[in-house]
Amino acid sequence: MVISADRDASSAGRVLVVDDEKPLAQMVATYLARAGYAVAQAHTGPDALETARTEHPDVVVLDLGLPGLDGVEVCRRLRAFSECYVLMLTARGDEEDKLAGLAAGADDYITKPFSVRELVARVAAVRRRPRPTVAPAEPARVFGDLVIDLTAHEVRVGGDPVALTRTEFDLLAALSARPHQAFSRRQLIDIVWDPAWVGDERIVDVHIGHLRRKLGEEPTAHIDTVRGVGYRMGAR
């Protein structure tokens, strides 16, 4: 592990770069440090988890091909104790890698080879994601057996808590804020990711699929597909 910037002096946030290609990891870390981030590095799966526990990063840049534990398993275990954003590094054109990373809890991905400046921009984009601002007295949003408590950052179905990633929660918050509106993929990307985000808009479909599986479709459909448009909340 190498700290590439003074964590206390960094105002941009903390980033953990995980890649077994040490020269690449160092180059990425250098650019992120120049952008004002406190940066730590790890080069194996087990080291990544240990560093994440001690450094509490806001964002993890995570390569899929790691010794010890691969990136998918690291992401899965990371989700057990951290809500940090995960930006997965995948091989160009490998759709299965992208889907596996997103299924494990990654928030976004970038394909190799990549521009380091683009990666820094992606990190900045996830850090800029708007968090729901809720007055303390605002009641929970209720859709049948689904309860969304933005103040507590908690979701329950039939009284049982549902563990969501930050991206999944943000998507649900965006949809539930305007339950009668049909959102396009692009609109949801602008709200949840960033208006400057560039990539495959089907990333929305993947996260919606995860949400549906976690929330369940009975006794009501919580998220509707609007043909030719996108998605909206199901009936209350």
Automatic annotation (TrEMBL):
Residues 138-235 bind DNA. GO terms for cellular component: cytosol; protein-DNA complex. Residues 138-235 form the OmpR/PhoB-type domain. Gene3D superfamilies: 3.40.50.2300, 6.10.250.690, Winged helix-like DNA-binding domain superfamily/Winged helix DNA-binding domain. GO terms for molecular function: phosphorelay response regulator activity; transcription cis-regulatory region binding. The modification 4-aspartylphosphate is found at D63. InterPro entries: CheY-like_superfamily, OmpR/PhoB-type_DNA-bd, Sig_transdc_resp-reg_C-effctor, Sig_transdc_resp-reg_receiver, WalR-like, WH-like_DNA-bd_sf. GO terms for biological process: regulation of DNA-templated transcription. SMART domains: REC, Trans_reg_C. Residues 14-127 form the Response regulatory domain. Keywords: DNA-binding, Phosphoprotein, Transcription, Transcription regulation, Two-component regulatory system. This is PhoR family transcriptional regulator. It comes from Kocuria marina. The lineage of its organism: Bacteria, Bacillati, Actinomycetota, Actinomycetes, Micrococcales.
